């Protein structure tokens, strides 16, 4: 659905009253509230369940109508946890979200959209229009640790939402050497294990491994083991960050491959392996770190590589959310949900709060404020990793500017602002024809010749997908802090890339509220490379206005090289 909704009006689940002593069967207990509790919410239904397809269908016409109604109603923020596949160019009217968002932004309405849940593969990010704030999902500094004690007294901490009774020491099995020959090994993947009729599961806990990226792999394994009389299942898998309880509170615990292998080696070391499974408990703070969720869709932008997407990240893993009381697995109207659909209203709530402070800011200014002040380390100062296979340090294609920092965003100091002329410049610069641009804008539009450079588009980021030797680009900063301010630049250049900023000092006063600077970028590389990352920061000793740099050297035109 498309949500709209405050004395600020926000389109989201950004609002919401305080509900004390809330939990899911005792997990994540505390007080829940919306990101902007005093916001007024308007909800516009755009998706309809289709019985024949057994899926929700969201037509472009319904989405556009909802956005049009929201504009007419005077909302301040629109939040859309929706996306299109396949992708369309921003000027293509078949992309109702991009079209509707463009007109909303021209009416001063900030539009916040989900990046999608097709990660961790590259080029999967959706909602790519540069007038949209596109949101990635991170985990919280919270986990649901589930202690499992092996017969050798080693304790393994798995992850689960198991709230049943402790399962005392129980026989633990792994499906191998179960074929007709003594040396025959049946495949140990969960999917094949569960159709192996030779495995006796009754009264036992079963260990299996899966390569499936889908969360249904765990629930399917649990269902089969339960039907076969088993008492629990341990699933070893790649991290996917989607955790759900299993039906009837059946013990289903997830571990990574390393811990799964530890359990397997224990099983092989003894004739009578056993395991005890305790109920899950909520673990908050250290040593649990913030990570970009594996499912969160990643850049680079597949349509316009010079436009960084996603823009920003927010918590979207195992969010305790309100739901209907007839929804599966709900506990008194609350449930855990994961996805960029959960992260999106978090950003919408932040924008609503910022809107209450800065009524005259443009949508681009709000985007700049949250991007340039975002955390690039977690709240404990540790670097943020991106889940996947393998896990790696997060970069701008995982989380844009970083993890949203609402308090810092309230006073960003400087913003990279934009309006209609900038968006037209963008569409001209990437080669869209004038008729399609005119149709979107609503009036005849003529592009300059030669067309402008997309690298001069005033984003709070610099992404250069095809640096051959050297390029110079321009950015403009608007002062929203103290009238008389002096900022000095600091650059962390990407590996093998030279970055020179002119001037190195920006002076703002009552007559100079907008000041431009130039960035010259040159490469030391002599071969085509992947992307390297850095940052550019303007600081007045109080505010640090930071944007990500992403540069790929392309000596020859980019081509696919399977080697």
TrEMBL record:
Peptidase S8/S53 domain residues are 3-377
The GO biological-process annotations, alphabetized, read as:
proteolysis
Protease as a keyword of this entry, yes or no, is yes
Positions of the Subtilisin-like protease fibronectin type-III domain: 456-551
Q: Which CDD domains match?
A: PA_subtilisin_like (cd02120)
Q: Where along the sequence do coiled-coil regions lie?
A: none
A family per Pfam:
Peptidase_S8
- Please name the InterPro entries in this protein's record: Peptidase_S8/S53_dom, Peptidase_S8/S53_dom_sf, Peptidase_S8_Ser-AS, Peptidase_S8_subtilisin-rel, SBT, Subtilisin-like_FN3
Keyword Signal in the entry? The reply is: yes
Q: Which UniProt keywords apply?
A: Glycoprotein, Hydrolase, Protease, Serine protease, Signal
Official protein name in the record: Subtilisin-like protease fibronectin type-III domain-containing protein
Provide the species name.
Microthlaspi erraticum
């Amino acid at each position: 659905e498309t949500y709209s909704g405050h004395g600020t009006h926000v389109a989201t689940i950004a609002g919401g009253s305080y509900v004390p002593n809330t939990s899911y069967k005792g997990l994540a207990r505390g007080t829940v509230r919306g990101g902007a509790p005093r916001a007024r919410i308007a909800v516009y239904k755009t998706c309809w369940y289709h019985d024949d397809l057994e899926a929700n269908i969201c037509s472009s016409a319904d989405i556009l109508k909802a956005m049009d109604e929201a504009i007419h109603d005077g909302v301040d923020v629109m939040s859309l946890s929706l996306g299109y596949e396949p992708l369309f160019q921003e000027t293509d009217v078949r992309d109702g979200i991009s079209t509707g968002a463009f007109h909303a932004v021209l009416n001063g309405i900030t539009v916040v959209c989900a990046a999608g849940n097709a990660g961790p593969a590259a080029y999967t990010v959706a909602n790519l229009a540069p007038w949209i704030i596109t949101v990635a999902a991170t985990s919280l500094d919270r986990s649901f640790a589930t202690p499992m004690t092996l017969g050798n007294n080693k304790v393994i901490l798995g992850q689960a939402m198991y709230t049943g009774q402790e399962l005392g020491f129980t026989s633990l099995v792994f499906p191998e050497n179960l074929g007709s020959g003594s040396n025959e090994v049946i495949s140990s993947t969960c999917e094949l294990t569960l159709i192996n009729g030779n495995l006796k599961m009754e009264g036992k806990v079963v260990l299996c491994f899966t390569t499936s990226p889908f969360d249904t792999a765990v629930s399917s394994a649990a269902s089969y083991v339960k039907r076969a009389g088993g008492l629990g299942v341990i699933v070893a898998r790649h991290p996917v960050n989607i955790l759900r309880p299993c039906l009837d509170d059946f013990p289903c615990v997830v571990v990574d491959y390393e811990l799964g292998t530890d359990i397997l080696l224990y099983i092989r070391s003894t004739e009578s392996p056993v395991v005890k499974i305790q109920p899950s408990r909520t673990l908050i703070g250290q040593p649990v770190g913030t990570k970009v969720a594996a499912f969160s869709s990643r850049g680079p932008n597949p349509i316009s590589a010079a436009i960084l997407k996603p823009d920003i990240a927010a918590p979207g893993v195992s969010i305790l959310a309100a739901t209907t009381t007839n929804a599966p697995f709900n506990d008194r109207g609350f449930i855990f949900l994961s996805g960029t659909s959960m992260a999106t209203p978090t950003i919408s709530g932040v924008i609503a709060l910022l809107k209450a402070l800065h009524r005259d800011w443009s949508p681009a200014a709000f985007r700049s404020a949250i991007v340039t002040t975002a955390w690039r380390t977690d709240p404990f100062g540790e670097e943020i990793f991106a889940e996947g296979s393998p896990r790696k340090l997060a970069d701008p294609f995982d989380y844009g500017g970083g993890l949203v920092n609402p308090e810092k965003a309230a006073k960003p100091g400087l913003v990279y602002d934009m309006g209609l002329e900038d968006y037209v410049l963008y569409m001209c610069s990437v080669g869209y024809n004038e008729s399609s641009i005119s149709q979107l804008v609503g009036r005849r539009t003529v592009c300059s010749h030669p067309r402008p450079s997309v690298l001069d588009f005033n984003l709070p980021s610099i992404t250069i997908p095809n640096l051959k030797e050297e390029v110079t680009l321009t950015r403009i900063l608007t002062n929203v802090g103290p009238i008389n301010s002096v900022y000095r630049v600091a650059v962390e250049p990407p590996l093998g890339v030279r970055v020179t900023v002119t001037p190195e000092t920006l002076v703002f006063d009552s007559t100079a509220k907008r000041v431009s600077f130039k960035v010259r970028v040159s490469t030391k590389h002599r071969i085509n490379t992947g992307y390297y990352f850095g940052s550019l920061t303007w600081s007045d000793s109080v505010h640090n206005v930071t944007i990500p740099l992403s540069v790929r050297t392309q000596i020859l035109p980019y081509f696919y090289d399977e080697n």
